[in-house]
Fold this sequence. Notes:
Chain A has strands at about 5, 10-15, 20-25, 30-40, 40-50, 55, 65-70, 75-80, 90-95, 105, 110-115. By secondary structure, chain A is an all-beta fold.
Amino acid sequence: DAGVIQSPRHEVTEMGQEVTLRCKPISGHNSLFWYRQTMMRGLELLIYFNNNVPIDDSGMPEDRFSAKMPNASFSTLKIQPSEPRDSAVYFCASSGSDRAPTEAFFGQGTRLTVV
Amino acid sequence: QKEVEQNSGPLSVPEGAIASLNCTYSDRVSQSFFWYRQYSGKSPELIMSIYSNGDKEDGRFTAQLNKASQYVSLLIRDSQPSDSATYLCAVNDGKSNYKLTFGKGTLLTVNP
């Protein structure tokens, strides 16, 4: 299996622009998570989906952030408009294998820089 | 607010020694506990999971869980310079069973 795949790996954008991050979870996993990692706050859960349905979005910082999961193999995290304080590494993770349903595996992350 | 606490370190050990990493958590009904290793600039990598009280060994790694004390630890035997990384403790939400809360990690440095 290719693991969790994220794109792009790096994104540099100007303040006010829309940013879309993409994720393909591990095939067969039914839970998908978006995390944000910064030095100050560590890994923060933004939102998680179960069977393509958003279950908990309480970690989404504000209305500028939105996430979708139109099918079991694709999810997006959108920031519109972006701000410099959104600069961070954004990770997607998935879990839900039959053998170990709560073990989560991370993608390589997207390093976002908003200037 | 459910919390997972780790000593931020850095923890420095000589090559060949045992490194001991500790974690406490606040959610009394948590059932799943994980250790992730994160190299600088890379993504977290799952290295151990533990679900029952006691010890679980996998190669040079041993995870220890004490639910009564709400305490999880990771021992790394025969530490190698390649073990130098940040180790993240993660605990699942006892109610939802899907949600993971991470500690901020302990930076481990193994000196040759």
